[in-house]
Amino acid sequence: MRDITVWKNNAKLSEKNRLLNLMSSSVSHEMLTPLKCIVSIIDLLRRKKYSDVSITNNLEIVANTT
Description:
Elements: H1 5-47, H2 53-65
Helix pairs in contact: 1-2
């Protein structure tokens, strides 16, 4: 007789890893789409000239962190 406990545990871990990867890819896709829009809007806003220097500085901060 063989102890198949280790094999069963490995199979459970494999399934959990597969589900985690599937969830991660779905979540990252759902987050990337709005982030791409935000980055595009920031780029458009940075092209404008503002009289308030703080707006320009804040946009630069946000642009450099994305």
